Amino acid sequence: MKFILILASIIYLSLSNIYCLAKEVKQDESILKVGLIVPLSGKYQEIGKSVLNSIRLALSKINDEQIEIFPKDNYSNPEKTLFAAKQLEKEGIQIVIGPIFHQNLIYLEEVQNLTFLSLSNKTKIIPRNVITMGVNANSQINAIVNFIKKENLNKTIVLIPKSNFEDELRNALVKSKYEFMNIYSYDVEPIKLTSQIKQITAYNERTKKLEKIIEFVEKGIEILEKEEELENLKKKYTLGEVDLDSVVINERELKNLKKKYTLGEINFDSVVIANFGENLKSVTNSFSFSDVTAQDVKFITLNQWFDETLLKESSTNQIYFPSINLTNYSKFRETYFKSYNKYPPQISILSYDILGLIYYIKKVQGDNLVKNIFNKKMSYIGEIGEFSFEDKIVTYKLDIYQVFDNQFLKIN
Asked: Which residues are bridge partners to 300 per DSSP?
């Protein structure tokens, strides 16, 4: 009898332990574990820390204790990124936010049990288990093409700088299936750039036309009363697009002509400049030097993240660009500032949205997180705006903004 009681006790204790263990596993499985791989030390530590801070803000907003973040420092190094990924894999994590930079993705295919949501905006040469969540060239070009069509522009040229981003941009242009008038690769070196812009805008030809018209007007004033000589003069100075019959031959007209630098129209109605910051301003300034302004063509560029220096540059006045929602972006920046007493880098808002996306999919669509996010074409709305996935590529629905009257004006 004593033996039976002892055996029953052992069985009971064993079952209790198994039950307790099962309960712990079940509780563990209910927790949403998300890895984070960013540079928390070294050259890019400020960007990495801002991403971590943004995720903390997202956690605070979600307010659910069933989420755990596992941050790892990759020092923005490919080998250390792989090491961090393997550590996360051992901890049973399946989905990771990061890395930030494209160059740190190269070894991640070795960690097949993890899916990475990188903050990079590049979509070429990406491992199969990586989705780049940045505002990519495809999304930007799609928004630009839609704007061009809406504005009834049909003579658009594109200027792409000679850089390691050129292939990415050209691939996006091809995917858009839109027939641009011409696509130029240009040299960012100032002297070469100015020379190229002069060629594109036919600056020398337009300058010569102006010189000939000034000469025509000067001679026309001298022989104004001699109708026959004036007709012969018109025949001599017939100049393509310039209608000499419309030229008023008087002193006022001559003064107006001498204020100009060129004469005659250019052969395109819009130009897409695929650049940013000071390099963008160098191009718009080169157009100004070539006597082509926003009154002559529509200038369009890529996502500028609302760079306020554009408001102070006369050559970028009235320029258009695709971007995320300005109102949401501004709110996020202010929320971040209140928490950390400084403004975040632009990409921080991406990590804020990514965590929200992961949480939403987990709660609404079930446990098979990766399959539910990336193998279906679905649209989501976050702080950055509307976005969707198809074939593991994210596409953002971007708004068009214009630099106008010292502000960023949303174009409906």
From this structure: 272, 320
pLDDT mean over 51-67: 93
- Look up the domain containing 385 and give its range: 32-134+327-398
Closest CA to 201 of 276, 242, 261: 261
Q: Does 46 share its domain with 170?
A: no
Q: Is 202 left (phi over 0), alpha (psi -120 to 50) or beta?
A: left
- Establish how many alpha carbons lie within 13 A of residue 146's alpha carbon, considering only the half-sphere containing its beta carbon: 14
Q: How far is CA 336 from CA 132, 308, 345, 347, in A?
A: 23, 19, 10, 13
Q: Cα 67 from chain centroid? A: 30
End-to-end Cα, the chain, rounded Å: 86
Is residue 183 within a helix (H) or strand (E), and if so which, with residue range?
Answer: strand 182-186
In sequence order, which ranges of 106-250 are alpha helices (DSSP H)? 137-150, 166-176, 190-200, 203-222, 227-236
Task: Identify the band that residue 18 occupies on the pLDDT scale cut at 50, 70 and 90.
Answer: very low
Residue 406 in domain: no
Is residue 35 classed as helix, strand or coil in its secondary structure?
strand
> For position 10, what pLDDT does the model report?
35
Rounded Cα–Cα distance for residues 126 and 374 (Å):
15
Phi, psi of 104 (to 5 degrees): -95, 10
At residue 32, the pLDDT reads 87
> Which of 53, 111, 56 lies closest to 85, judged by CA?
111
Q: Which two tokens stand for residue 41?
A: 């030390």
Supply angle C-alpha 62, 65, 71, rounded to 5.
Answer: 85
- Is residue 307 in some structural domain? yes
Range of weakest confidence among 82-91, 285-294, 390-399: 390-399
With beta carbons less than 8 A apart as the criterion, state whether 323 and 397 touch.
no
- Whether the upstream peptide bond of residue 322 has omega within 30° of 0, thus cis, is no
pLDDT of 308 above 60: yes
**Mean pLDDT across the stretch 119-148?**
94
Q: Is pTM, for the whole model, over 0.90? A: no
Residue 75 identity (one-letter amino acid): Y
Q: Of 19-28, 64-73, 229-238, 246-255, which range is least confident?
A: 19-28
State residue 208's pLDDT score. 84
**Phi and psi based region of residue 123 (left: phi greater than 0; alpha: psi -120 to 50; beta: remaining):** alpha
Is the residue at 9 inside a domain?
no
Question: CATH number for the domain including 147?
Answer: 3.40.50.2300
